[in-house]
């Protein structure tokens, strides 16, 4: 029987960490503890033993050193290969062999799954590294700088053919919509290929800010495509995402210079930015006007002072000439 001792929910092991912790130790302070482990799940296709299947959980695409996970048929029916899961359960120790103690992890609960994490090749990891090295554009500063110059920042918005996300977006912008120069492109967002085809057709002399806009619902997994991320990265222009609901965070959002939880959130961001710049411009204009007034008053006072000094000198001269 397992005890019901628990550890902090925030402490999650990797398969490698559990193997290192338990494989060469007959006894551990964590024996009988409810543990959490995260990794890529793979069904092995092995036959059922009693009421359980023995599958694998690994840290990466390389399943070497993977942890055997003991999964009930009921839980297994809801799992997908190559998906990144967090399981809760207990370590079970078997026979001792040359590699150490034979370990398995009995899954009692699926604590979470991250659809945005997938198995990456070395090329994919290099792409992620290059994205970080290039840095992330300060979208607020870029747009504010153009508005301050009296320009309407060009913003290219890619959204679905039948999407109504633009309605929420425009409603959030209110009367500041005219502060920006929007170019709307509607396309099929069903596959990475159709999205890439749409953005590659765009040719503007002044590279705009590119926005991926879509509401919530099914089909958001297309934005987890590493191929799409690479194509957008290769464009070399700043881009943001306004995709789904607050709970959605696709891979493309993590690649973006800035990600917004919803189209409405992006609309509020632009509205607040435009109003802030307008207020700032008005304040600067007022202060400049007041400064100019002060300078003019100072000039008047200086001229008056010169006149007074002139009169005094003239009177002194008259006194001396008597």
Roughly what fraction of the amino acids lie in strands? 15-25%
- Level-2 CATH architecture of the largest domain: 3-Layer(aba) Sandwich
The quaternary structure here is: single chain
DSSP summary: helix tally: 9
Average of pLDDT = 83
Radius of gyration: 32 Å
What is the terminal-to-terminal distance? 124 Å
- Within CATH, the superfamily of the largest domain carries the name Cobalamin-binding domain
Order of strands in the sheet with the most strands? 1-2-3-5-4
Instruction: Count structural domains.
Output: 2
SSE string, helix = H, strand = E?
HEEEHEEHHEHEHEHEHEH
Query: Rough shape?
Result: elongated
Uncertain runs are 1-10
Reported for the largest beta sheet, the result is:
5 strands, mixed, barrel
Derived structural class: alpha/beta
The CATH class name of the largest domain reads: Alpha Beta
Q: What do we call the CATH topology of the largest domain?
A: Rossmann fold
Q: Brief description of this entry?
A:
39% of the residues lie in helices and 24% in strands. With 322 residues, it is an alpha/beta fold. The protein folds into two domains: 15-114, OB fold (Dihydrolipoamide Acetyltransferase, E2P) (Beta Barrel), CATH 2.40.50.140; 122-274, Cobalamin-binding domain (Rossmann fold).
What can you see in these coordinates?
Pfam families: Exonuc_VII_L. It comes from Dyadobacter jiangsuensis. GO terms for molecular function: exodeoxyribonuclease VII activity. By secondary structure, the protein is α/β, with parallel strands linked by helices. The protein has 2 domains: 15-114, Nucleic acid-binding proteins (OB fold (Dihydrolipoamide Acetyltransferase, E2P), Beta Barrel), CATH 2.40.50.140; 122-274, Rossmann fold (3-Layer(aba) Sandwich). Helix content is 39%, strand content 24%. The strands form 2 sheets. Strands 1-2-3-5-4 form a 5-stranded mixed beta barrel. The protein has a 5-stranded parallel beta sheet with strand order 7-6-8-9-10, sandwiched between helices. Strand 2 (52-58) and strand 3 form a beta hairpin. Helix 4 crosses helix 9, helix 5 (165-173) runs parallel beside helix 9 and helix 6 (192-200) runs parallel beside helix 7. The longest helix has 59 residues, at 263-321.
